[in-house]
Design brief:
With about 725 residues, the chain is α/β, with parallel strands linked by helices. It contains 28 helices and 24 strands. The protein is globular. Pfam families: RNase_T.
Length: about 725
């Protein structure tokens, strides 16, 4: 409302002075807010300056000691989509944040991030003026680094570090996927679902079976022995051959490889291959659903006792019992369904089955199974074309968890299997469940039975949101290999890379768009000053199209996309924090059960972080060998490894700093590590698995690993430490 107020012209004025209309306080406040929120830097007709609005972030007065990994996802969705405001961070003027870049850097920790200042001072290239910066230095609030200052791209993330607790379950000592924690969000409420035009009931999209063949990377991650034809690099093939020799999975141990001379990559489409209802789901391919049952023999190894194979039409083409070469120690009837009577008159051997399979399986064959690696281990056989239902129907909480075949059959087929009770499983029944799950997947499409059933990709949620100008938001997923086959399939643009330099180039390309990215790439150098090494790809390439190899050469529009996710790999590869321990032999010695961090990490942590050498505590019952302290005069290879790690840390920080200095203004940048050092946790997990394996068949005094409450507490502690990650964030000026 308006009010009458007298006008006083001087000290002699009285209440009889002139009166005029004035606005109420609420109206004046609203007008001030409009002026404060004006997005453009210009002057009004009366030359009154209107301030340029800058977004900003700052921790609350009580900065959290730790946040959950999901909090980073919630921050992204709050800024770009329909998320709620975070409780641990204040975000000012979020509507003026133009982009969000999330960069995952496994192997990163707080000490490494805090070294950014020192590394920046040693690197003269980080002080260069930022391309595309159009905001004046004075426009940035105190807690938002200005792009034109040294602090903006040398120590911004060192000033905004927050510990992050990775996804997992402390009660069961499980560590879940940090990728899923950030990229898969909970399903929206039914009310929101009804209002969203693309969240209607599931629409089937018939998909060719070749779209679900696992890549060699998928198989390697699932610990499959890899068929020689899957390698086009002789060095990688030799490394896999050496690994198979050391783990008794080679020809010298009775293994055979199917007769596939070379891997036909064209059979695996880069994106789901849709087919019409009148077209075949398999064409000339020959899928076979396979399931095996095993028994325990006198050498304490699991041996094949039955094999069942069904063709694509459900016809049983092979169902045979197999006589192990050694006496049977335990039939495990409650699991295998095998009894002494079943094998009493059987003379078929493993070698007979292998010969029959080598005749049956051709280069056109695809093997279908659930956790098929265990069946192939029993068959001592490899094949390059595999579809594993435990992978194409992923667990809702991500790897390493996997759903059981019984659960999948009940949920998606509405079928009860493995109800034999004391009679155990039926391999034909299990093979048929696998076959029907794969057929259903082909009929419904690649999204059927995925995490979308319990959550949805944040890429899809962001795509539903609108920009201030009404246009749909776009995203980019930048990763090694084939990003369109994994969690990045919902992204507007997928950019495949081969090294970390190309990852940075891809982020800049996605952020600026193809018409402007060349200038940004030209300002970016990632090699150290005065380095004698060959120049990086960033220096050799002259255009964004040539800088980053990609599966879909679609032009990214000017101005780039709204959300970018990318991951650097080189620091993780050098540190090996996520590298699982080598497989244990059948009869592990105390040396096989011992564990200590590589000596280069002891030396490097002490040198770079100012800490003492530290070896995770592995209970003595798990290992009979002790860890010696690093030698006073380390071998030359340890020194070289330490220098390599130091160089990789420096290059990784320089890449992050220079990326930040070259991104467009008003970009929220989030760096996160995912997890901490996983090696102690993975080793204890391996020892626990060895204990469970031996406990079924050995007396306590013969166990190589004795698992007690001490070991259980050590595993829980290692799990908590493995979940300890770190994040840093800032907004470019």
């Amino acid at each position: 409302m308006t009010e009458l107020e007298p006008t006083f012209n001087g000290p002699d004025d009285t209440a009889d002075g002139d009166w005029h209309l004035v606005e109420s306080k609420s109206n004046r406040s609203r007008k001030r807010r409009k002026i404060d929120d004006a997005p453009f830097d210009h002057r009004s007709n009366d030359q009154t300056p209107i301030r340029t609005v800058q977004p900003g972030i700052s921790f609350h007065a009580s900065k959290p000691s730790q946040i959950q990994a999901k909090a980073l996802q919630e921050l992204v969705l709050y800024v770009l989509a329909d998320g709620v405001a975070p409780t641990w961070l204040a975000v000012r003027n979020k509507e003026h944040i133009d982009k969000v870049v999330v960069l995952m850097v496994p192997g990163l920790d707080k000490q490494t991030l805090e070294r950014s200042k020192a590394i920046a001072h040693d690197d003269p290239t980080t002080g260069s003026t930022k391309a595309y910066s159009h905001q004046p230095k004075s426009s940035s609030p105190p807690d938002v680094p200005s792009s034109s200052s040294d602090a903006s791209h040398t120590s911004w993330f060192a000033q905004n570090i927050v510990p992050v607790k990775g996804p997992g379950d402390s009660g069961t000592s499980k560590v879940h996927s940090p990728l899923h924690a950030l990229l898969i969000s909970p399903s929206q409420e039914q009310k929101q679902r009804n209002n969203a035009t693309d969240d209607r009931p599931f629409h089937s999209s018939r998909t060719h079976i070749s779209s679900f063949i696992q890549s060699s990377d998928d198989l390697r991650e699932a610990e499959y022995p890899i068929h020689p034809a899957a390698f086009d690099n002789p060095r990688d093939a030799q490394l896999e051959q050496d690994r198979r020799e050391s783990t008794f999975q080679s020809a010298s141990s009775g293994w055979v490889d199917t007769k596939v001379p070379h891997f036909d990559a064209s059979r695996i489409p880069p994106s789901p291959k849709l087919v019409r209802h009148s077209q075949s789901l398999v064409d000339e391919l020959k899928p076979y659903a396979l399931d095996c049952e095993m028994v325990l023999t006198d050498d304490d190894k699991y041996s094949l006792a039955r094999i069942s194979i069904l063709d694509w039409h459900g016809k049983t083409i092979l169902d045979k019992y197999v006589k192990p070469s050694l006496p049977i120690k335990n039939y495990f009837t409650q699991y295998s369904g095998i009894t002494p009577e079943h094998l009493a008159d059987v003379h078929t051997t493993l070698q007979d089955i292998q010969a029959e399979l080598l005749s049956l399986i051709t280069p056109d064959s695809i093997l279908l199974g659930h956790s098929l690696d265990s069946d192939l281990n029993a068959l001592k056989l490899t094949h390059p074309y595999i579809i594993d239902t435990s992978i194409i129907y992923p667990h809702p909480r991500g790897l390493p968890l996997r759903s059981s075949l019984k659960f999948l059959a009940n949920r998606y087929l509405k079928r009860e299997i493995q109800k034999g009770g004391a009679n155990g499983h039926d391999s034909v029944e299990d093979a048929r469940a696998v076959l029907d799950l794969v057929r259903l997947k082909c009929e419904k499409g690649s999204k059927w039975g995925t995490l979308d059933a319990n959550g949805e990709s944040i890429l899809r949620r962001i795509a539903r949101a609108k920009r201030p100008d009404g246009r749909e938001r776009q995203s980019a997923f930048i990763e090694y290999g084939t990003p369109e086959r994994g969690l990045g399939r919902e992204a507007t643009f997928k950019i495949a890379c081969e090294d970390d330099d190309q990852i940075i180039q891809g982020v800049l390309r996605a952020a600026h768009g193809d018409t402007a990215a060349s200038e940004a790439l030209a300002t970016l150098t990632t090699t150290e000053p005065n380095s004698n090494e060959p120049s990086s790809n960033a220096e050799q390439d002259e255009s964004p199209e040539s800088a980053t190899p990609q599966q879909h050469p679609t032009v990214i529009p000017p101005g780039g996309v709204d959300f970018i996710w990318a991951r650097l790999h080189e620091l993780e590869s050098i540190r090996g924090w996520n590298t699982p321990p080598p497989p244990l032999p059948e009869n592990p010695t105390s040396a096989d059960l011992a564990f200590s961090l590589p000596s280069r990490d002891h030396k490097q942590e002490a040198a770079t972080n100012g800490t003492q050498n530290h070896t995770p505590s592995i209970p003595s019952t798990c290992t009979s060998t002790s860890t010696s302290s690093p030698k006073a005069n380390p071998p030359l290879e340890d020194t070289n490894a330490s220098n390599t790690l130091e160089k990789t840390i420096t290059q990784t920080l320089q890449r992050i700093q220079k990326l930040y200095s070259t991104l467009p203004a008003r970009t929220l940048v989030i760096i996160y590590s995912g997890t901490g050092d996983m090696r102690p946790y993975l080793k204890l997990q391996q020892l626990h698995a060895q204990y469970r394996k031996e406990f079924k068949v050995k007396n306590w005094d013969r166990l190589s690993v004795k698992w007690t409450d001490v070991e259980q507490q050590a595993l829980r502690s290692a799990c908590d430490k493995a979940r300890g990650g770190v994040a840093a964030m800032g907004i470019t000026g």
